[in-house]
Amino acid sequence: MNTWEVLKKPIVTEKSTLLGEVGKYVFRVNNKATKPQIKRAVEASFSVTVIKVNTFKVPGKSKRYGPRMTTTPAWKKAIVTLQSGDSIQLFEGA
Fold first, then answer.
1. pLDDT at residue 51 above 70?
2. Domain limits for position 13
3. What is the distance between the alpha carbons of residues 91 and 18, in angstroms, rounded to a whole number?
């Protein structure tokens, strides 16, 4: 899997911005991406040193559209911890 296929988009919420102050950044990643692939992709994309990668699957939610019940697709989230002193400018609005 290529590095541009691993990271889909950053997640910017209140909780993720609070984690960013501690050196942790949150990304939506490919469902089949592994922790080493995510680490290489973040290091190559942002020129930082990754210490740890935590991943988990976010389950889909049930939604009702009229009489039909559907389910939104499940997706994978990664929380990346960077070396102290490193930061990603994308999250800080610069």
1. yes
2. 3-84
3. 11
